[in-house]
Amino acid sequence: YIKEDDKILIQGSWYGILSYFMRKAGLQNQILNVDLDPVAKRIGQELSPDSEYYTDDAITFYMERRHWITAIANTSVEHMERDEFEMVMQSRIPGTLVMVQSNNNHSEDEHINVHESVDHLADVCSLDDIYYKGSKVFKGKEGWMYERHLVIGR
Questions:
Q1: Which of the residue ranges 17-21, 67-71, 143-147 would you say has the lowest mean pLDDT?
Q2: Which residue in 50, 72, 77 sits closest to 61, CA to CA?
Q3: Each residue of 74-119: pLDDT tens digit?
Q4: Is the alpha carbon torsion for 129, 102, 7, 96 positive or negative?
């Protein structure tokens, strides 16, 4: 679903892991990794040096560049303020590719924006076209089972 000329923003890049796998898959796109943690930038630059890394707030970074970013990836929606994530979804330019993950894991204190189902996450994204949505079950802290949701669409 990623077009050859897409400019990809990875919000909460978590050491550039997704960027690394995108490069391993052969993507040559401009990939911008944004994370608040300066260590994530340093490790990401080592892991996937062909991508760009920024230590910044992912919401502000996107809002200042939303007119030219054509794809948003976020694998940690549960760590973002609900109203800020919804603002990003509502502010994106029509046709922007959205690839987001969240979960329904309430056992982690830092999970401030969980989604009870993949349909709930998809609804919040307000996509015209959904290419994929699905969930996988995982075991969390103290054996709690939870679902991790993935939605891809425009």
A1: 143-147
A2: 72
A3: 988 998 999 999 999 999 999 999 999 999 988 788 898 999 999 9
A4: positive
Query: CA of 150: how far to CAs of 47, 51, 126, 131, 136, in Å?
Result: 24, 23, 14, 11, 9
Q: In the β-sheet with 52-55, what is the strand arrangement from edge to edge? A: 52-55, 30-35, 7-11, 71-74, 97-103, 145-153, 130-139
What is this structure's pTM? 0.93
Phi, psi for residue 88 in degrees, rounded to 5 = -60, -45
Token match 């502000």: residue? 60
Nearest to 102 by CA among 127, 119, 87: 119
- Per-residue DSSP letter, 63: H
Token representation of residue 1? 């679903």
Asked whether 64 and 56 are in contact (CB, 8 A), the reply is: no
